Amino acid sequence: MIDFLKLWVTDYKSIKKIWTNPLLYINIDLTKVNQSTGELEDIKIKHFEGIEFKLEPYYPKNGKVKRERLVIRFKPHYWHNNNLHNANDFTPKQARCIIQRFIELFNIEHLEHFKVVNLEYGLNFIIDGYGKELISYPSYHYRNEFLRDQDNFFSKKAHSFDKHGKANDKHIQIKFYSKGFQFPDYCTTNTLRFEVKSKRSRRIETKGIYHLGNLLEKHAYKSLQEDIIANANRVLFIDPYPIYEGLTKREQNKLREYSNSSYWFNSLNQKRQQAFNDKKDSYLGYLDKTGNNINRKFVEAIEQKLTQLFDENGINSPPLQKNEIGINSPMLKGEYIPFSYSRVCPITGMDITMQKEGSNLLSNTGLKHLEKTDKKQFEELQKILLTGQYNKFEKTVYDKMSKQIRNRYYNHYQDHRPEQTKLPLF
């Protein structure tokens, strides 16, 4: 149900605990110009399995002293599917489990320090007789027209604009698109997706969601369910192919007029703002009379699917190729290997079948083999591992690298995590 989550952490101890966690990898340093002050600011970014952790400077409200803030960008539905897609069903129960797993993985104690500042939630559903062609229908949310998403085919977004014509999408943005077109290998081709996005903490808080801990509570998802339905009811589709059965001649002519997209453009530009809503009610009444109202079908399909998603004894989409006791290292370039099927190093995710039986970490033998067979990957691993001081006993680059692997394993994993759930750092 939750597609995207953005968190702000400003508590120093919580930031330090996350930022120094050995699970994080790919440390990127950037320099960015602050548009308000003109100053150059340093930004640091780390990752873990598709989750982005960004350390950036910020000024607290009414404060003049610059501080650091940790920004976490997380896609729970994708994470549930090993970051491959969000085309299957994702129930509130599964969302809570994913949030709980994230909390336990990073040993987060003070959930209130992780403020929710951006939230996207939605669902996949099917309307009988319709598919991606519904995206092409003229459509509105409130008085805001759905506009084509330039980055994706068969995808549209609706949001308001300010007086200067710039997108005002921080309060709320509605997205409607063909999931079947985007991920045909993971769902039926007529699967659609409806999403609500908010970048305003004030609006998110009205749903009872203030911090990460609230996303473990059932009532928060009920609020999101109500919000999805409310926004679905605010959508207006202009059916270009209406049927006219059951209508008088005059009503048929009126319905033809309503089926012209230019009619609604002109309605939006009338001085009386209520004119658009009045015409919408009249239009829906005519469609109801014909017995073929796509707007009613749209809302009903969403309501029915939400009922199924909230039935904890019903839908239970298994995560695709997700295994809690497997290796999912970026050094494997997206490949996922369960421990039970392969001998791999739990720190680097590298194959260690060429090493002697009983060894469980990448050693000098494996490093030499990697250098011969994949020089580029060896050099990448070398850059990641060799960042500190070395002692006199580490005479070769292999000694230094294998020592760093052992240090990371014993210092950070043996003391804190069970053997069967250790995850790679890289």
Polypeptide structure, described:
The strands form 4 sheets. A 10-stranded antiparallel β-sheet has the order 2-3-4-5-1-6-14-13-10-9. A 3-stranded antiparallel β-sheet has the order 8-7-15. It has a two-stranded antiparallel sheet with strand order 11-12. It contains 13 helices and 17 strands. With 426 residues, it is α+β, with helices and mostly antiparallel strands. Helix 11 packs across helix 12.
Give a brief rundown of this model.
With 426 residues, the protein is an alpha+beta fold. It contains 13 helices and 17 strands.
% residues in beta strands: 15-25%
Largest sheet: 10 strands, antiparallel
General shape: elongated
Cα end-to-end separation: 29 Å
Number of helices: 13
Helix-strand string: EHEEEEHHEEEEEEEEHEHHEHHHHEEHHH
Give the % helix: 25-40%
Supply Rg. 26 Å
Number of strand segments: 17
Low-pLDDT residue intervals, each spanning 5 or more residues: 320-342, 412-426
Would you tell me the overall average pLDDT? Answer: 84
Strand order of the largest sheet: 2-3-4-5-1-6-14-13-10-9
Structural class, by secondary structure, is alpha+beta
List the helices and strands and how they pair.
Blueprint: E1 2-9, H1 12-19, E2 25-33, E3 40-48, E4 51-58, E5 67-74, H2 76-80, H3 92-105, E6 114-125, E7 139-141, E8 144-145, E9 147-148, E10 155-158, E11 160-161, E12 167-168, E13 173-178, H4 179-182, E14 192-198, H5 201-205, H6 218-233, E15 235-237, H7 249-258, H8 261-268, H9 274-290, H10 294-309, E16 326-327, E17 337-338, H11 364-373, H12 375-385, H13 397-414
Antiparallel strand pairs: 1-5, 1-6, 2-3, 3-4, 4-5, 6-14, 7-8, 7-15, 9-10, 10-13, 11-12, 13-14, 16-17
Helix pairs in contact: 6-10, 11-12
